[in-house]
UniProtKB/TrEMBL annotation:
InterPro entries: GtrA_CellWall_Glycosyl, GtrA_DPMS_TM. It is found in: Membrane. GO terms for cellular component: plasma membrane. Keywords: Membrane, Transmembrane, Transmembrane helix. It comes from Pseudoneobacillus rhizosphaerae. Residues 20-143 form the GtrA/DPMS transmembrane domain. GO terms for biological process: polysaccharide biosynthetic process. This is GtrA/DPMS transmembrane domain-containing protein. The keyword DNA repair does not apply. It is a multi-pass membrane protein. The chain crosses the membrane at residues 21-39, 45-65, 85-109, 121-137. Belongs to the GtrA family. Pfam families: GtrA_DPMS_TM.
Amino acid sequence: MSLLELKLESFLKRTNRFTRFLLVGVINTITGLSVIFVLLNVFEFSYWTSTFIGNGVGAAVSYLLNRSFTFNSQIDFTKGIPKFITVILVCYFLSYSISEFVADGVYYLYSTIPFINEEEFAILLGSGFYTIANYFGQRYFVFNT
């Protein structure tokens, strides 16, 4: 192992769960948002279809990384996956419904920004809501640590 790998491993062992969760979140958010924006802007899928599929892809990455890296859980897949899917769906519908409503209500604040539209703003806002709600659901319900 290189010195950099040893330092990174040492750092990650000392970090708290939320920091590791955020690191995993960066990975699955980049993955999920990439899928969302390609579906929305390239393939012209709807807001709900794009966010649902993109979050599904990000969720799969999230489950595997959070189970092994963030929470170091030994929970059986047959018990963990149904709980995980429940948390993901609840967080998804709540977060993206709230963000769509908020984005519609405050559109005048960002309507002068030329590179973002209302749906894209709602997606970014929903992603933030989703991350916070998802952390608590994963920690206290799915992996129960």
